[in-house]
Amino acid sequence: MPVQETDTWNLTDLFENDEAFHAAKDGVRSRLGEIEPFKGKLHESAKSLLQALTCMDDFSRELSRLHAYASMRSDSDSRVQACQAMRQEIGLIWTDLTRRASWLRPEILAMDEDVLDGFLGQERGLAPFRFYLEDLTRKKSHVLSPEGENILAAAGLVTSAAPSLYNVFHDAELPRETITLTTGAEVELTPSEFSRLRTTAVREDRESLYTGFFRAYRRFRGTLGQNLYEGLKSHVFRSRARGYGSCLSAALDDDNVPVAVYTNLIDQIRLRLPLLHRYTGLRARALGIGRQQYHDRHCPLVPAYDRRFTPDEAAAWVRRSMKPLGPSYAEALGACFKGRWIDWHPAPGKRSGAYSSGAAYDVHPFILLNFNGDYDSVSTLAHEVGHAIHSFFSNAKQPHATADYSIFVAEVASTFNEALLNSSMLEEAERQGDTRQELFLLGSLLDGLRATLFRQTMFAEFELRIHQETEQDLPLTGERLSEIYLDLLRAYQGHDQGLIEVADLYAVEWAAVPHFYYNFYVYQYATGIIASTALSEAVRDGRSGAVERYLTFLKSGGSKHPLELLRSAGVDLETPEPYDAAMAAMTRYMDRLETLLLQSGR
Questions:
Q1: What tens digit of pLDDT does each residue of 189-199 get?
Q2: Does 384 qualify as catalytic in the annotation?
Q3: I want to staple 367 with a disulfide (CB 3.0 to 4.6 A). Which of 175, 314, 342, 345 is the partner?
Q4: Quick one: fold of 31-159?
């Protein structure tokens, strides 16, 4: 049975058509003034406070659904200006609502805490907002006066410009080179085509792909550098306006994550670079080459092993590997694959990469893929399905006010699924005695750890450094960004140790990473895989209560701070144990890889 009737989203689950979207949008815009009569009255009664919070929650619910539709319409084909305009309109309405309600948080914080506690005890309807109110009180020193909040809200009109410009330029208008492969085929080096072809076993083609792809960014590094600098300055503006000591502390405070968690991640992974470099050496042995070039890093350890998957086969693998999570998870997977939650295939103008969106609380999550049939595509499917089922469970079990969860915990659910998929496929290869498949999978698994743990930590270190330079009011050009990036890239890749030669061209790789506009986002991929490694091993080992704790975690949404949610699931990221466990797992995989290489005479 096909995974779904077509290979695109069923956006009619959100709105029947664009006309219905515009009618709903205009309806919301016409009612924005409904929040204003509550101003100055929150202290009068628990009922007044509840009505104001419910009004804002309802607006958020409706606007999130509208934004989901507009965003996905635009992401389906970023060349369509009308769809870009739809997304922009929703952004403007959000800004207008934020401005109109800018008095809300200061007024709540002006209330006597005993009165607020009394309201929470009197009015059961306030229960869904308890966490919000307690967390708001925690951040009281960083909330401005109503006038200040109004100015910050209005600033959203300009502070969102840099990422918006980047997305349009990168996905639709950046001139891409066309190269000729050794087969004679001509290829336009879009991100999806580059991702699909960079695993080729033909080293000459890999070099051509990398050179052509990154030359496009180097030609525009001045423009892209200035644009990123503008985005960084908006982060500095907001952190200073709210009285934080740094952009990092401002970004982490929303999740109540100590700065030490971020810096400890960098310190821990820096200490463990020799482990990454050991894997780099094993790759060279497996590939039969001396010093690797940067364009060799995605070449599979079994170059001739080109296993392909249809969408149905990929979905079947995800179903099979998630069986340890039980029937409720399996039922949710069935709804995902049969209900047209997924837009599968690359298309002209379609947004590159992949994501899952669970913003439409009353519907179901949606997944964007650029599926090309290779193993990475299957792994990406498992990753995004992890996000989707997390949202599905959270939306089903939590009220809207606490359903949305932090990215910090989101990346646990996604990489957890990748771990189960890898384990399932490795077990099959071992059962069948398929050494070539096992080598391929071990390489893919270790490459995943390299990319998600070490590479994302390198990104996090780069992001910290460029924010620090911006905070020091230093100029930050495309050339300077490239200088910082190349220094880090060579350190992590083992350039000076003779492991991987990183040519100067790749200094501009930062320009191909949209996440640097997301304000300290990427570190959560690394902390996520540290946590998910511990949790997935507990589930695979059948440890008592592991499945139940994990499913409870998925159903908890944003009802607690991320570190507390993870501690309840069984992982404490403020201790060294999860890092030790992840490194021990990576060492086991490398030991097995080395054994197989020795057995094959390499």
A1: 998 899 889 98
A2: yes
A3: 342
A4: Butyryl-CoA Dehydrogenase, subunit A; domain 3 (1.20.140)
